[in-house]
Write a structure and sequence with these properties.
InterPro entries: MIC19/MIC25, MICOS_subunit_Mic19. Keywords: Coiled coil, Disulfide bond, Lipoprotein, Membrane, Mitochondrion, Mitochondrion inner membrane, Myristate. One of its GO terms (cellular component) is MICOS complex. By secondary structure, this protein is mostly helical. It has a domain of 109 residues. Helix content is 74%, strand content 4%. The chain is built from two helices and two strands; from the N terminus they run ββαα. A two-stranded antiparallel sheet has the order 1-2. β1 and β2 form a beta hairpin.
Length: 171
């Protein structure tokens, strides 16, 4: 992940003030340039005779710094990709959860609608049955009233007849 050696060659030159100039358009951070400017010997002295060693050491440090910077950028890019994947999975998961919840609600709503329709049909059936019973009982009541009226008439006639007979007997 960027920790391996780079196949890219970086050429650089030192100018007369021991400043580093990058030739092939490689960008270096200010901290890398500052570290490159630091003296490599512990006492802070640089010898002209050790310039070749310093150049090699400097090349090595630049390559290490570039490798570290590349590794850091690769690590950040990988973190962003992983975070993006995690966010995508979370979004997909929440969408699936939401979809399941919506489907459950639709199923429950449909079940309630069917139950209401079933109860409405049962209620209509009961009302029709009650109307039939009401008509039947009204008809029965009318028959009973008619019979009662006939019995009353017959009884009244018999009473009148008996009263007339008793009256005729005792006159």
């Amino acid at each position: 992940m960027g920790g391996g050696g780079s196949t890219r060659r970086v050429t650089f030159e030192a100018d007369e003030n021991e400043n580093i100039t990058v030739v092939k358009g490689v960008r270096l951070s200010d901290s890398v340039i500052d570290r490159m400017k630091e003296p490599s010997s512990p006492g802070g002295r640089q010898h002209r005779g050790a310039g070749a060693v310093n150049d090699e050491e400097l090349k090595k440090r630049i390559a290490e710094e570039l490798a570290l910077e590349r590794a850091r950028r690769d690590s950040e890019a990988q973190k962003r990709r992983l975070f993006g994947k995690l966010l995508e999975r979370e979004r997909i998961s929440s969408n699936e959860h939401l979809t399941r919840a919506i489907l459950r609600e639709r199923a429950a709503t449909e079940e309630e609608r069917q139950k209401s329709q079933r109860f409405a049909r049962q209620l209509e059936e009961k009302e029709r049955e009650l109307k039939k019973h009401d008509a039947y009982y009204k008809e029965q009541l009318a028959r009973l009233e008619e019979r009662s009226a006939q019995f009353y008439k017959v009884t009244t006639e018999q009473y009148q007849k008996a009263a007339d007979e008793v009256s005729a007997r005792f006159k």
